[in-house]
Specification:
The complex is a heterodimer of chains A (about 350) and B (about 575). Chain A has about 350 residues and is mainly alpha-helical. Chain A has 19 helices and no strands. The two termini of chain A are about 20 Å apart. Chain B has about 575 residues and is mainly beta. In chain B, strands 6, 7, 8, 9, 10, 11, 14 and 15 form an eight-stranded antiparallel sheet that branches. A four-stranded antiparallel sheet of chain B has the order 1-30-29-28. Chain B has a four-stranded antiparallel sheet with strand order 2-3-4-5, with no helix packed on it. The longest helix of chain B is centred in the N-terminal third of the chain and has 10 residues. The chains are: A mainly alpha (about 350), B mainly beta (about 575). The interface between A and B is large, with 59 and 61 residues.
Chain lengths: ~350, ~575
């Protein structure tokens, strides 16, 4: 997973500041302190990084032309990392880390930023040792535990991932809740095969585990195992009859089977629980259109647009309806909106 | 193809925050649909006979187990065409090359070992001879696609090839020789572009095949980042080659045939170059809106696919979104790569199949008539196969029952991913769906013989009756392997007919025509295409199954000139040549 990068870096800054807040016991002194003018530049660079001008900070430090000084390399690496250039951060931090004194604040910061840079660059397996080392002195850092958990997921180490994520959520690592939370994260990083296994373990330990059947249903439906998906979703509703998303998922699966009446009933229940969510309105729009009721379909789709004006799918399906009912100009406008939103999602 | 952080990244488990995340999650699910039902009798079995037929040369395309750059991943097409007009389909298999280890320069191949394109002549009896040397088609480089047509109306099929590099037009001079007339014809383009799809198309109805050429994207190999070194260089968290997202798009080209061996670039005045922001791949030209003017449809990677509607006045309009051909049923862009056109529901209108990336499914666009389509892949049962990257595709009637089946080849673009995620294998099977009833399909992949289930990393595929035994065979390009020649050992009783066209007012090869056959109470339409599948060219003889019948009740030929020929009570079990105006 490529994390929410900027928020992630902001969190990192806090962690680094915390790590550097005091002198650590047993810390060795740095090999040779930088010259005063260098110290000034590094301090200014730190200020720039704090102000969100990391690229400017990197340029300033780079201009010192002291590539072999580990303290300079540290600040340069931190600046590059914050400037969304993890690859070049790795280049300078990798040789700097062994030059910094064991257990020094600088070493810890370098290890942490190197681990995070490797992680962001997708070199997950290489990142893990550095993140684990960071975890030794930042055991309470929940964000770090979460990152480490995802890193374990990416490298197919579900046991370690669950343990790390359990720490993040303050639940026992072998608990049903830990399995559920690990599965949620696995789904987010598109590892649904791992998630399915994790969910099965969770349900084996607690057959009434909330949300587990919903997620198993979600995966089964995605993989076109519709009957299985329906069974899981219905089981979730038995366990939690107030789960609007489960009704929505049920309506989704039924609409794929073109069981429009049943789908409409499920989607309506979803909206009776949570009327402010656009997804069921979109599916209801499709369902009513298929049932030959374009007026009701249009009402549903316009409600979807009202609640979620940036929902591309709502505009697209509404445009199709308008086109089918001969309102060409209105359809064109809705298609254009859908296309604009598609473009905004980016190439 | 797509790729890192492409549609597959946002396809379903989109990483977002708040309520919208839930919306994206569930709504984006809408790819899956019916599981396969109980298997029924399926008398189709594919056997790979490439080796015994003599198709033995591998198509080299980038690294074997790791791809550093996107240019190594797309592979190339193949063609089945009768270049010597002896009634036997010959084979052209395109090839790429390879970068030197740790370098961005192509390998220098020892004399005689260069992986050039290969032209094989069909001698009949299941044997082909390699006639590449001296043919003019034996180029070395990063070949993309092939399209075939008779641009000079001399009765010999000519060839256009696209490249990451210089495209080339080859005039068939007879005797197995294809003269490179690119510069004289004025279709070489300027500088290094990444040619992708192409199609000969008579867009202005003057009886001459013009030429449409697509470009994938703008790519600077010297400046390209290494795998993992950028925002668009990760897939499911793993470092992979970068793109296409984040890389600049390019525009497409249209050349008008002047009739004197030269072409005029009309990309701008025709409106073709006005469509921007698309990663164009395979291009097919057929009359998709039934107005007798031949349109162009381009499968586009990670962006809206492009439907160029021929306005009949020398210009094209971008009707991608309004037609329903741009996106999937919920308006989401997909990674369009391969495409096929035929009439799967028996209403006499041309439908479209388009293939995509792993964790996605093909799009199946059912024609509603007058240039409007609805996307029904999930409802039609195509969602049960969703692990593989999908490439060359066809809608052949494999069992001659009068209904178009689905066939597509697979292969991942990230060979290195398999080691960490075995559920996304580098090499995949050839996917086969049997058309049940004209509305839905059942997965027959595991029941279509060893040639279908064998795993390869395939790209192009061409469909045609290679052994003239009355069923459709398939030629497949495999990355860094010899091609597969999948012989269809159909064992059922159904009848068939093949229709070959010869234009008079229309271009001689009949490109852009649509043939509608009625037999056994069913109608079925097929177009004559210069390119389809993935970067490939199919047999120009259109193959129709007749079910239990031995005769076609009616054959209607809708020529690109606007002329319509109608033949009735036509005997099957043969290749029928229809000359334009033959019904008079």
């Amino acid at each position: 997973m490529r994390p929410g990068h900027r928020a992630f870096r902001a969190g990192l800054t806090a962690a680094v500041v915390a790590a550097g807040a005091g002198t650590l016991a047993g810390q060795s002194p740095p090999p040779s302190p930088p010259a005063p003018e260098v110290t000034t530049v590094l301090a200014e660079a730190r200020v720039l990084i704090g102000r969100g001008k990391a690229a400017e900070a990197a340029a300033k430090v780079q201009a010192l032309a002291l590539p072999d000084d580990p303290n300079v390399a540290l600040v340069l690496g931190v600046a590059r990392y914050h400037a969304d250039d993890p690859v070049r951060a790795i280049e300078v931090l990798t040789p700097a880390v062994p030059k910094l004194p064991e257990a020094s604040v600088e070493r810890r910061e370098a290890v942490q930023v190197l681990g995070l840079a490797l992680y962001v660059a997708g070199r997950i397996a290489e990142a893990i040792p550095f993140l684990e080392e960071t975890g030794k002195w930042a055991a309470d850092n929940l964000e770090l535990a979460q990152v480490l958990g995802v890193a374990y997921l990416q490298t197919r180490q579900p046991e370690k991932a669950r343990a790390s994520l359990a720490r993040t959520f303050d639940v026992p690592p072998e608990s049903p809740a830990a399995h559920l939370l690990a599965a949620q994260l696995m789904i987010r990083v598109q590892r649904d095969d791992m998630a399915e296994a994790e969910l099965k373990q969770g349900v084996a330990k607690d057959p009434t585990l909330p949300q587990a059947h919903y997620l198993m249903g979600q995966i089964a439906i995605f993989r076109a195992r519709l009957d299985e998906g329906l069974a899981h979703t219905r089981r979730e509703i038995e366990l939690n009859p107030g789960n609007a998303m489960a009704y929505y998922q049920l309506g989704d699966a039924l609409s794929r089977q073109q069981k429009w009446d049943e789908a409409v009933a499920a989607l309506q229940r979803s909206l009776w629980i949570n009327p402010f969510y656009s997804g069921p309105y979109i599916l209801l729009g499709k369902a009513y259109l298929k049932k030959g009721d374009p007026a009701t379909a249009e009402g549903m789709l316009r409600r979807a647009v009202q609640y979620d004006p940036n929902n591309r799918q709502a505009h697209f399906v509404l445009a199709q309806l308008l086109q089918q009912t001969g309102r060409t100009e209105e359809a064109r406008e809705e298609f254009a909106t859908a296309e604009r939103l598609q473009d905004q999602e980016g190439r | 193809m797509t790729r890192s952080n492409g549609p597959q990244a946002k396809r379903r488990f989109a990483v977002a925050c708040g309520p919208l995340a839930l919306l994206l999650t569930v709504a984006a699910f809408r790819h899956a649909a019916y599981p396969a039902s109980q298997p029924t009798s399926w008398p189709v079995s594919f056997v790979d006979v490439a080796k015994q037929a003599g198709l033995v040369h591998p198509s080299i395309y980038g690294g074997m187990d790791r791809k550093r750059f996107i240019t190594e991943t797309n592979g190339s097409g193949v063609a089945l065409f009768d270049f010597d007009d002896d009634g036997l389909l010959d084979a052209l298999v395109l090839s790429g090359t390879r970068l030197a280890e740790g370098s961005r320069e192509d390998v220098s191949w020892p004399p005689g070992e260069a992986p050039t394109n290969r032209l094989y002549r069909n001698h009949g009896g299941g044997a082909f001879a390699d006639v590449s040397a001296g043919s003019g088609l034996d180029r070395l480089g990063w070949a993309s696609s092939v399209c075939v047509g008779d641009y000079d109306n001399d009765g010999r099929l000519d060839v256009f090839l696209t490249y990451f590099g210089r495209n080339s037009l080859h005039r068939n001079r007879g005797g197995g020789r294809f003269e490179d007339v690119t510069d004289a014809a004025g279709v070489g383009g300027q500088g290094t572009r990444w040619g992708s799809g192409c199609s000969f198309i008579d867009y202005d109805r003057d009886g001459l095949a013009d030429l449409f050429v697509a470009n994938y994207l703008r790519f600077d190999l010297a400046a390209a980042p290494e795998p993992g070194q950028g925002a668009n260089c990760l897939w499911k968290g793993l470092p992979v080659n970068c793109g296409p997202k984040g890389l600049p798009t390019d525009t497409n080209l249209l050349y008008r045939n002047r009739g004197d061996g030269t072409f005029e670039d009309v990309s701008e005045p025709s409106g073709v170059a006005g469509v921007t922001g698309r990663y164009s791949m395979t291009a097919a030209a057929a009359d998709l809106d039934g107005d007798s003017w031949v349109d162009i449809y381009v499968a586009c990677d990670s962006t809206a696919s492009t439907f160029y509607r021929n306005d009949g006045d020398g210009t094209f309009s971008d009707r991608s979104v309004e037609s329903g051909l741009a996106y999937n049923e919920f308006g989401t862009a997909q990674a369009g790569m391969g495409l096929a056109m035929a009439d799967y529901d028996g209403d006499g209108l041309l439908d479209v199949l388009k293939t995509h990336f792993a964790d996605d499914i093909p799009a199946l666009y059912r024609s509603l008539g007058r240039g409007r389509f609805e996307e029904l892949a999930g409802v039609a049962g195509l969602a049960v196969q969703n692990r593989h990257v999908e490439w060359g595709a066809g809608l052949p009637d494999l069992d001659n029952d009068g209904r178009a089946d689905v066939f597509y080849v697979t292969g991942n673009v990230y060979p290195e991913v398999e080691a960490q995620m075995p559920e996304y294998p580098h090499r995949g099977p050839r996917i086969v769906f049997r058309n049940r009833d004209g509305t839905s399909f059942e997965d027959a992949t595991g029941r279509t013989g060893p040639g279908a289930s064998a795993a390869h990393s395939s790209r192009g595929a061409a469909f045609g009756d290679v052994d003239n035994d009355g069923d459709v065979d398939v030629l497949v390009m495999n990355m860094n392997e010899p091609p597969s020649l999948l012989r269809n050992d159909y064992s059922g009783p159904n009848g068939w007919i093949q229709v070959k066209l010869r234009g008079r007012r229309s271009n001689r090869a009949g490109l852009g025509a649509t043939v509608v056959v009625t037999a056994a109470g069913r109608r079925q339409a097929r177009p004559v295409l210069s390119q389809s599948s993935y970067y490939s060219h199919d047999d120009l003889r259109l193959h129709f199954g007749l079910g239990s019948e031995r005769r076609a009740e009616r054959i209607e030929v809708l020529w690109p000139s606007g002329h319509v020929d109608v033949l009735t009570d036509v005997e099957g079990g043969r290749v029928l040549t229809v000359e334009e105006g033959a019904d008079r």
